[in-house]
Amino acid sequence: xxxxxxxxxxxxxxxxxxxxxxxxxxxxxxxxxxxxxxxxxxxxxxxxxxxxxxxxxxxxxxxxxxxxxxxxxxxxxxxxxxxxxxxxxxxxxxxxxxxxxxxxxxxxxxxxxxxxxxxxxxxxxxxxxxxxxxxxxxxxxxxxxxxxxxxxxxxxxxxxxxxxxxxxxxxxxxxxxxxxxxxxxxxxxxxxxxxxxxxxxxxxxxxxxxxxxxxxxxxxxxxxxxxxxxxxxxxxxxxxxxxxxxxxxxxxxxxxxxxxxxxxxxxxxxxxxxxxxxxxxxxxxxxxxxxxxxxxxxxxxxxxxxxxxxxxxxxxxxxxxxxxxxxxxxxxxxxxxxxxxxxxxxxxxxxxxxxxxxxxxxxxxxxxxxxxxxxxxxxxxxxxxxxxxxxxxxxxxxxxxxxxxxxxxxxxxxxxxxxxx
Length: 421
Description:
Strand content: under 5%
Order of helices and strands: HHHHHHHHHHHHHHHHH
CATH superfamily: MFS general substrate transporter like domains
Helix content: over 70%
């Protein structure tokens, strides 16, 4: 903690303002209120797992396909402006989405699909340009700590978001003199969550466009025309690996709450508490990344963390009890929090500076395609074969991605820095 406190004091103003926006994202969209209540709100509107998977899957597919254009927008406008634009539009979408009850029944399904798709398209601009923005806002000495704090902020903020998400429907049910089976008790928490994203927009607006002077030798970046073709192979390989590995996380994040509610009939407060505890316990894992990377390297942290993610899904698949499911979810989120900052630094460091936005776009696109595929197929697979088969298949695909990365460890070897005079 002393090391982290010393590093935190050295973070640039841009890095600190970005972390504010990351915290708000964790509280609402990435692991917080929206992640917990989205599927449950759709259940209250009368939709089943197939439609829940359709809404999530199509939005994630749009997010994935928007990643490469989002990188191009970032190169044209600058990472900061692209993030402000993306998060601002996403705020509008996440406020509009829970107003579906006000839409006539014939158009409600289209509203739920299209507005959520719009929101994720906008989020792509924020996500893709975050890593290049942070790389510009940090030095190599502090970079691991900044990315780790970012990864820790998501579960910590997600803890409070999940905890609040579990309590707010109960509170609104009391205020409205109804039960948590009423969709209105979920509409208002989702509206509050969407509106809170304005804090992140303001934080990014207060940042500036300044960039540190490029130092390819210090950053370990490859230079020269001979090396410019190499990123295509590296990006394609990492894209496939991340697509496979990400399916386990996508399965847990999309269907964990729905599984507890619809299959195990777990009380809403329990679901919120389990999700919140999982987010909170993930923070120490994220903060441990610099120590782990210092001992094993970023590549090995990602490799063995991915193996652990596959294993962590087994209790969720094999033991039909809320406690086993909760422990499985906690392990998954903790390992994601450990591996995400490691692979973020790794994939930014193995390509030249000019290729960072494109590399980030490929990485984010792979995650989006992964989660989209698991969401679109998951609802139908659950309806046909049940939740255990779905979670087992997700674990197998994640394990295959980890095996591919381990077998091709030399394919993404970091290029040597150019000699300096």
